[in-house]
Specification:
This protein is an alpha+beta fold. Helices cover 21% and strands 40% of the residues. 22% of the residues are buried.
Length: 149
């Protein structure tokens, strides 16, 4: 009986690892149903003293993109503080807002986010990304994704 339980636990563990490995290869960032929600006009302005969030990809000068896209953000902390990955928040600005943090978490490190095949439906999508450093300072950036039909 004990060997059977250990065997079942081992199989479950292997399935979980395979699932996480596949999840890291591609992922749905925004669903078609979420894209249909009304846009939230929320905007944040001001000076943020926390980490810098640099948008590497997609580049805004390329015009509308085709899904899946490569989403790459780079985090840089300042003044000896470190980025606190546990505070990463990615919000889809819809009514109501949608927390996408768990969708990007498998692709996030203290250096940034590298989601090579992010699935996004056609349209314009506004995202807000926040992350804190170990000093409690917040860094933020707004990202607009233009996805072609």
């Amino acid at each position: 009986m004990k060997a059977k339980v250990i065997s079942c636990v081992s199989i479950a563990f292997v399935c979980m690892v395979i699932g996480f490995a596949n999840q890291a290869a591609a992922g749905v960032l925004i669903t078609a149903e979420e894209a249909k929600l009304p846009t939230n006009a929320m905007s944040r302005r001001g000076v943020f003293l926390g980490p810098t969030i640099e948008i590497i990809s997609p580049r805004s000068d390329l015009g509308p993109l085709r899904s899946p896209i490569r989403l790459v953000l780079r985090f840089r902390s300042h003044g000896g503080a470190k980025v606190d990955l546990n505070t990463l928040s990615v919000t889809y600005l819809k009514k109501p807002t949608i927390d996408l943090s768990t969708r990007v978490a498998p692709f996030a490190t203290a250096e940034g986010i590298n989601m090579p095949d992010a699935e996004v439906p056609p349209g314009s999508h506004r995202l807000w990304v926040d992350i804190e450093d170990t000093n409690g300072e917040i860094g933020s950036v707004e990202l607009t994704l233009q996805i072609a039909e």
